[in-house]
TrEMBL record:
Alphabetized NCBIfam families for the sequence: gatA
UniProt key word ATP-binding: yes
Self-association and partners: Heterotrimer of A, B and C subunits.
Keyword Protein biosynthesis: yes
Gene Ontology process terms (BP): translation
Domain Amidase: from-to ranges: 25-472
Family to which the UniProt record says this protein belongs: Belongs to the amidase family. GatA subfamily.
Any Pfam family hit: Amidase
Organism listed in the record: Actinokineospora globicatena
UniProt-recorded name of the protein: Glutamyl-tRNA(Gln) amidotransferase subunit A
Keywords: ATP-binding, Ligase, Nucleotide-binding, Protein biosynthesis
Catalytic activity, EC: 6.3.5.7
UniProt enzyme class: ligase
GO molecular function, one term: ATP binding
Length: 503
């Protein structure tokens, strides 16, 4: 493996700016790494080799001409989740319905990455339309966890997290509807951030659940995530849910946290996220992480958020209901897959045949559940009641943040489970997002940072912050990361087993 693929994003950018290495060399090293190991990991659905090298050359040209860097991440390679549109490249959302479809425009996130000089390597695998917790629901086959190729890399953004853990990219973009950035981060030993809802544009993000979806940064360090966060965040008039407010100072907070001082910070431990259902190794690693925060000067307080116990059922009414509405656009009439268009079928039959052939089992399950919850006579009992629970969860967060600066919990109740282990039990799969869903329902910021190993597999600590106060989580995460690395002899990611290289 090239040493260039082991560098953090901040280090790569600094070396490119100082002419110690070219962006083309860095990009080629990562493309070579993808060619060598992705046969085993299957993180990528599309590798955009020519355009990646062209983007890297443009950065090198700027450096050679003495022009200012487009951003602090100019020249750094990135893997883009295949739910964000990218002109000139397939955007499949992991579904046969959109196989081979190339959008005519870039998502705002994609545009901002390009403008920042970030080199997009390609599109990563995901659960179909972001519905899943394991990346087993992709129509193009599962992604595997580099820590153990028999295990899942989380979902729905398992391609992005696996690309980081396999050293195929130093940065990635994910999307988080119920934990799809944080849960993959936790089980692959990487950092995953769900920004405050509305602070990163959803324009060009193919919708699953419009009131919950949020794009965010994935990285191997807290600082790298913060640098990427500031590149992609900010108001966008093309997104009606975009918040017109300054981007929280997450990079400054990450640098402040790296001083290792948390004196004066109050950390709330959510009591509902403990007990039965949490693996012993996960609970132990999380408890040790909390004690590390205490050692850094933080005040630790137990906080009860009683409505969090209702988050999972509420989510699985709200999200499928919105999915039922959003996925109605895939009707075989305008773009994407078209089945039965031989002149012998009506438009309605073509729609039905296309959806039957194009959508996977999990997507069909959620569409049917959502359509039922929205149907006449059931709307108030199901969807309406779930929205009331959502309000109660928001109130729990408000009450908690009146007492503490951040809340912490395990990111996920278990480490990475084996591929195929939960595919026959949807409820067991859904429980992987038990701790992450409340922040999606409330819209506040949350991130996952590696906090140890259990039976040789990564464990994540979730840090939740109030809306528009994302910097609080970054400060705590950076301080913890520094202390953990010092105590454990370096970053956990360095313990990923070496992957078999293709010949």
């Amino acid at each position: 493996m090239s040493e260039l693929t082991r560098l953090d994003a901040a280090d790569i950018a600094a070396k490119v700016a100082a002419k110690e290495v070219s962006a083309v060399e860095v990009t080629q090293a990562h493309l070579d790494r993808i060619a060598a190991v992705d046969h085993a990991v299957h993180a990528f659905l599309h590798v955009d080799t020519d355009r990646a090298l062209a983007a890297a050359k443009a950065v090198d040209d700027d450096v050679a001409a003495g022009r200012p860097a487009a951003s602090p991440l100019a020249g750094v390679p990135l893997a883009l989740k295949d739910v964000l549109t990218m002109q000139g490249a397939p955007t499949t959302c992991g579904s046969k319905v959109l196989e081979h479809w190339q959008p005519p425009y870039d998502a705002t996130v994609t545009q901002r990455l390009r403008a920042a000089g970030v080199v997009i390597l390609g599109k990563t695998n995901m659960d179909e339309f972001a519905m899943g917790s394991s990346t087993e629901n992709s129509a193009f086959g599962p992604t595997r966890n580099p820590w153990d190729l028999d295990r899942i890399p989380g979902g729905s953004g398992g391609g992005s997290s696996a690309a980081l853990a396999a050293f195929e990219a130093p940065l990635a973009i994910g999307t988080d509807t119920g934990g799809s950035i944080r849960q993959p981060g936790a089980v692959t030993g990487t950092v995953g951030v769900k920004p405050t809802y509305g602070t990163v544009s959803r324009f060009g993000l193919v919708a699953f659940s419009s009131s919950l979806d949020q794009a965010g940064p994935c990285a191997r360090t807290v600082l790298d995530a913060a640098l990427l966060h500031e590149v992609i965040a900010g108001h966008d008039p093309l997104d009606s849910t975009s918040i017109d407010a300054p981007v929280p100072p997450v990079v400054a907070a990450a640098r402040e946290g790296a001083t290792g001082d948390l004196k004066g910070v109050k950390v709330g431990v959510v009591t509902e996220f403990a007990g039965d259902g949490y693996e012993h190794g996960v609970a132990e690693a999380f408890a040790a992480a909390v004690e590390q925060l205490r050692a850094l000067g933080a005040e630790i307080v137990e906080v009860s958020c009683p409505s969090f116990d209702l988050a999972l059922p509420a989510y699985y009414l709200i999200a499928p209901s919105e999915a039922s509405s959003n996925l109605a656009r895939f009707d075989a009439m305008r773009y994407g897959l078209r089945v039965g268009d031989d002149g012998g079928h009506s438009a309605e039959e073509v729609m039905s045949l296309t959806r039957a052939a194009g959508f996977g089992a999990e997507v069909k399950r959620r569409i049917m559940l959502g359509t039922y919850a929205l149907s006449a006579g059931y709307y108030d009992a199901y969807y309406g009641s779930a929205q009331k629970v959502r309000t109660l969860i928001m109130r729990d967060f408000d009450a908690a943040f009146a007492q503490v600066d951040v809340l912490v919990s395990p990111t996920t109740p278990t480490t990475a489970f084996k591929i195929g282990e939960r595919t026959a039990d949807p409820m067991a799969m859904y429980r992987a997002d038990l701790c992450t869903i409340p922040s999606n329902l409330a819209g506040n910021a949350a991130l996952s940072v590696p906090c140890g190993l259990a039976d040789g597999l990564p464990v994540g600590m979730q840090i939740m912050s109030p809306a528009l106060q994302d910097q609080r989580g970054y400060r705590v995460a950076a301080a913890y990361e520094l202390a953990r690395n010092a105590a454990q002899g370096g970053p956990l990611i360095n313990r990923v087993p070496e992957l078999e290289v293709a010949h």
